[in-house]
Structures are given as C-alpha cells and as structure tokens.
Amino acid sequence: MLLRDRYIFVTQNVIGTELTSMTSLANKLNKFDVGWEGNAVSESSLYALSNTGSWGAMIWDSGSKVGHWVLVKGVDDAGNVIIYDPYQGSRYLMTEQEFKEVWNGHSVYKP
C-alpha cells in the first residue's frame, strides 16, 4: 500500500511477508522506489510524518505479543489518525491519543 499510494504497483507476494523491522521494510521498498527510511521516531513526529504522504507505523494491539505494520494515510481535520490495516483489511480512524498508545515509534516513510 505504501508503494501503491505513489502509483507503483507491486503485489504483496513480490514484497513478501517477513518484513518485521523498520530496516527490512525500508530496504524492500527501496528496491522498487528509492528514498524510503526506517527509523524509530518520537510521538511528536506524527504530523511531520503525515506531511510526507502515507507512511508505515508499527502498532501493538492490546494484549498482542507482536506488533504489525499499518499504513497511516494522515490526520484529518478533527485530529483523527487515518489508518489502513492490511493485516485486517480494514480502514478506521483513531484519536491521536489512541494511536500514540499503540504506536511504538517505529516508522517507515519517504521524506
């Protein structure tokens, strides 16, 4: 989805599923579109990242022992974080506070 939002069409089968770290996801994306970075950032980076376009965030659902990547589409006018979750195949909104409670700062983005 990160690539598709930039009009680069690659299937999930080509990208793979073993993308558990920021570095592994950024490296894989860079094979198709250079410039992706994977970094741990502070909560204060939420709006700056959202200004770069769609970006990946590692979130930890309540009670889960592992996190998973979601696509952050941005922040709406009401301050809600717009999420696409490829794992669940769903789209939803989270308040900024709700998002910050499950996001560990691990991010993949293209500045």
Automatic annotation (TrEMBL):
GO terms for molecular function: ATP binding; peptidase activity. Pfam families: Peptidase_C39. It comes from the Bacteria. It comes from Escherichia coli. Residues 20-106 form the Peptidase C39 domain. This is Peptidase C39 domain-containing protein. One of its GO terms (biological process) is proteolysis. GO terms for cellular component: membrane.
